Structure prediction request, 247 residues.
Amino acid sequence: MSKIGVFDSGLGGLSVLKELRKILPDEDYIYYADSINVPYGEKTDEELLELTSKIVDYMIKEDCKLIVIACNTATTSCMLKLREKYPDIVFVGTVPAIKVAYDYNYKDTIILSTPYTTKSKRVQELIHDYKRDDQNLYLVSGENLAGLIEEDSKEEIDKVLERILGEYRGKVDSIVLGCTHYSLIKEEISRVLPNIAILDGCVGISMEVKRQLENNNLIGTGTGDLTIINTKSNSLVKRSYEILNDK
Ligand code: DGL
Prediction:
């Protein structure tokens, strides 16, 4: 088995793939964006398990040795079930980087996630494990932001960000991006909330993938080859390459 499979409900997981390719340039990758079904953050657990199983089946058929669930929503909802269903595959998931805010001792932190992740038990567990006694955490739902990012609706994105985050201006020192799509709009977020730390899990996840490859003796000798699948359109494949190349 040779490739690393990375999937998300859409383009968001490209933020993870970008870091992965820096840390592991000699691996070959498949990126699978389920853009026809975005947003995952508004689906049920049953729907999410069905959609993600379909992607995992495809990735196994395509010879993937490790699968990165580059989606907080899918990780929160299905990672344990997928591990049970596919015991021979190594999965690495994504959860909001609340621990990073803890490690860096931030005091007033927004956790911005999809509606699903915001309400999830997993986020409550992370808060329980990593919230400092003297830290204020503000859980904010990103509403339909993931969908707007897919559509590249710049004006709408700015409006939603102002509406949901504007009230925190001057009151917080950090924001955790609990949805991989939001890592694609860091500039827009910092315009609404200037001079605060923007935290995501992209580097942490990539380091974890490296550790898992080493521990499972799976380090590859590929050529950095990349295949991008988008379930909605070829123009989104083109945009994916532009995002990866920072255009
Ligand atoms: N990018 C995803 C996440 O990290 C999902 C966004 C969505 O489809 O709602 O949660």
Q: What stands out?
A: Residues 8-10, 12, 38-41, 71-73, 114, 117, 146, 179-181 surround D-glutamic acid (CB under 6 Å). The chain has eleven helices and nine strands. The first helix runs from residue 14 to 23.
